[in-house]
Amino acid sequence: MKTLSYALLSLLARQDFSGYEIKQLMQAPIGFFWRARHSQIYPELARLEELGYVTHEVVEQQNVPDKKVYTLTAAGREQLRQWVSEPSEAAVIRDEFLLKTFSLWLADPAAAIAVVEDQARQHVEQLRVYEGIKQHIETEGAGEFMQPSSAYFASYITLMQGISYEQQYINWCRMIVEQLEALAD
Amino acid sequence: MKTLSYALLSLLARQDFSGYEIKQLMQAPIGFFWRARHSQIYPELARLEELGYVTHEVVEQQNVPDKKVYTLTAAGREQLRQWVSEPSEAAVIRDEFLLKTFSLWLADPAAAIAVVEDQARQHVEQLRVYEGIKQHIETEGAGEFMQPSSAYFASYITLMQGISYEQQYINWCRMIVEQLEALAD
DNA sequence: AGATTCTATGTCAATGGTGACATAGGTAAT
DNA sequence: ATTACCTATGTCACCATTGACATAGAATCT
Predict the structure, then answer these.
(1) What is the DSSP letter of B96?
(2) Using CB atoms within 10 A of its CB, is residue A58 exposed (0-12), middle (13-18) or buried (19+)?
(3) Are B85 and A101 within 8 A, CB to CB?
(4) DSSP H or E stretch at residue B68
(5) Among A69, B9, B134, B138, which has the minimal tally of Cβ within 10 Å of its Cβ?
(6) Mean pLDDT in chain B?
(7) Model confidence pLDDT, tens digit, residues B117-156
């Protein structure tokens, strides 16, 4: 089973969703650490149904087209639980900007400062998004997000990594800008 | 031009290398933020040569097979310089372990602690590797790694991000373990 | 009236990346 | 002797992922 399958099961473990709804979630909460397009999601949901990990029923809607709402089966839940309990290889970083900093000595200092500041700006934006979601979890999942068996707890710690990562990235960018400004004189 | 091309040019901007040598570098220094197998590297070097960004000459060796040593051309260097000077989209995180923490509420606390500790261990190992390289740069590139136009400077700041990232990841793992241990009682 | 956007589901060609297969001479260990 | 590994370069089938194409009804804007 590939990782995408587990990304889908992870969402369905919390709530029933249609493919379209999952597509939208894969751009925001889960999409922060695993992305997928609808062209991957729809066939994968069909495959998970063949394997017996999910079922679906068609739900009619007013004014918008019908949707297929998927539900996790007991087998799917067990599959997910086992996967979560197994250790993972540490992820390989794949960051085009870090590749650029490796060749930053070739750029003239003004251009170098500009690209680093641009990158910092993007990570500041992302941090703001995460902090908005954090507020949301702390409010909606109050009294639950501290219990390890609660989905809010899992959302919370995952989000904390996102926040911590962005803060670290921003600090690093600022350090580079400072050094470039100081040393360019 | 794809990112892999620039990864190869980034290395050749510093020194001439054969495909085999690049293959080994793509598992260590550059490989920390952009990896590639030799099955990608060899055809890509050929393609870069067709485009006029690199040239090669065959170097005979004693006891081991001949090698093709690639050299960056002026056009290749200019292409790289331009790419470095352009802003990049912030990288999308793609971390299987973060996907697991999102479903960590399904695992029993003992299994949860085990997988987080395993992940921390891997990042501690990676941090040690980075710190060894840091020592190396500070020694070999002393008096150079503080100048923005030096390749040592670029290596240094890129490495600092690696170190900072690993420290942050380890701290986060430890925070989760603490919470799991405290709340499991 | 026409254009655009949103919901909703799907397919498919092309690209990027992995893992296996292939070759070949030298070294080192059992 | 045989196995295994290292240098060195290459190809190829497969899998994952992307981007474009496709359809279709309703709402909204110009």
Answers:
(1) H
(2) exposed
(3) no
(4) strand B67-72
(5) B138
(6) 95
(7) 999 999 999 999 999 999 999 999 898 999 999 999 999 9
Instruction: For chain B, give every domain's residue range.
Output: 3-85, 96-183
Q: In this predicted structure, what is the pLDDT of residue B27?
A: 82
C-alpha closest to that of B51 among B8, B93, B87: B8
Residues in chain B within 8 Å Cβ distance of A171: 164
Pick out chain A residues at pLDDT < 50. Answer: none
CB of A18 lies under 7 Å from some atom of strand C: yes
The CATH T-level fold of domain B3-85 is Arc Repressor Mutant, subunit A (1.10.10)
Rounded CA separation B107/A173 (Å): 37
End-to-end CA distance of chain A: 55
Q: What pLDDT does residue B29 have?
A: 72
Spatial neighbors of B123 by CB under 8 A, at least 6 apart, are A90, B166, B169, B170, B173
Q: Summarize the confidence of residues B59-84 as an average pLDDT.
A: 96
**Which amino acid is located at B3 in the chain?**
T
